[in-house]
Amino acid sequence: MAAELFDKIYGRYYYVVRRMLEAGARASLTRRDMDDVCGAYSYRESALTIVPKLTGGGWALFEQREDKTYAPVLHHPDRLKPPLTGLQKSWLKSLLADPRARLFFTDSQLAEVEEALGDAESLYDPLDFHYFDRYLDGDDYTSELYRKNFQAVLEALEQNRTLKILYQGPKNGRSSFEAVPCQLQYSSKDDKFRLVCLRRSHGRFSRSILLNMARIQVCVPGSGAVPPEAAALRFSNSCKAAEPVRLKISGERNSLERCMLHFANYEKHTEYDEEEKAWICSIYYDMADETELLIEVLSFGPVVRVLGPESFLRQIRARVKRQHQLFYEVTE
Asked: pTM above 0.70?
């Protein structure tokens, strides 16, 4: 049965005693040590109540040794944790109702967690939320193949292993290769997971590629550990664009608020330029999202002007020119 949120076991006295037991598991404590723990995690005056109870036997959690120090009587005092409250259990149950969260657990782990949560009532249902700006062709997170491949990627990341992958490309058919998994990325707009990895090329793991998890047909552990030169690139921002996209936002037609909302899923920095009488917004993005960002910026029309970088500006000009040509070809 879950404890209430404001149960006394979550109070300061219980917390301080738990800290003392953890410290005592590392080395026996003197009375001065106990006073110091009280001072560090509670009011200094708390020691006047807590320490005599522990040393005098009122709370039979410590025993005195011949050297006048005190040691915990529990077998594993460093593993003490308060039970989850009913609210915490309900929150965890809500999270596990999301199929994306379940990808990070094996079937046995999920069964263990669900047993521990018992009949706790979920705070909400994922179907309670409507995502108006998300594509409808997201990954199938309940697919057995998807879960199996996802677990293989997690295991390789944790154990520093390579992967052998059979991948279904959008145009080029299937291809098989060995790769070093670097990081998993999630796109909330696409509702898809992507795997950033280094593909073996000419005997070295040097070719950076981005794979859609849903297109991976087979994913099994590779033949060896990750080479040191490839390991240094793991969990780095190697797929980040070299420069951020810089936008000049006029503020007309509520454009600033619209931009802040529309680009909320990007890392960005915005400041007001007194001379230009406009806001300058720098958007940092992954190269995989460049086309999507390009379309989003164009959707704002004349209230947003792209200042750079030049590579992004060239794509803007090319797309606007193509749209202009298509428009006049249709109307003529």
From this structure: no
